[in-house]
Amino acid sequence: xxxxxxxxxxxxxxxxxxxxxxxxxxxxxxxxxxxxxxxxxxxxxxxxxxxxxxxxxxxxxxxxxxxxxxxxxxxxxxxxxxxxxxxxxxxxxxxxxxxxxxxxxxxxxxxxxxxxxxxxxxxxxxxxxxxxxxxxxxxxxxxxxxxxxxxxxxxxxxxx
Length: 160
Known about the structure:
Layout: H1 2-19, E1 34-35, H2 37-41, E2 44-45, E3 48-53, E4 56-59, H3 71-77, H4 83-89, H5 93-99, E5 103-107, H6 129-159
Parallel strand pairs: 1-5
Antiparallel strand pairs: 2-3, 3-4, 4-5
């Protein structure tokens, strides 16, 4: 069945390439190769695992056993845009630095996802500033939970 899925995915990639208007294959500013999301989606198996974070494509096939959070989460996100889960976890600046060695290209502009509004615990992924923002979001959640608990205890004591 995996062979059938791979064949179907390859057909989708070929169809997109035929439909492509001959647009750019590389980013003119960075020189990075462009990949369509349909092509990324075909790389979701143990022998070829790619993910997208902030419209950048990473081949993490050789990183799965080294991942401190376990390989399962990587396989769950394989072949997809993993930007939100990556930011939600609050990866360190060391982790962000380590990603560079797995970078293989960028998502084709036609497949770009707009960056989502920053929510609780989500920071920008550029540089270490995103890390600090993620930590502030996490800390704010803890403080909010503690405050809510204190209000609940006070109400309980007032009633009983």
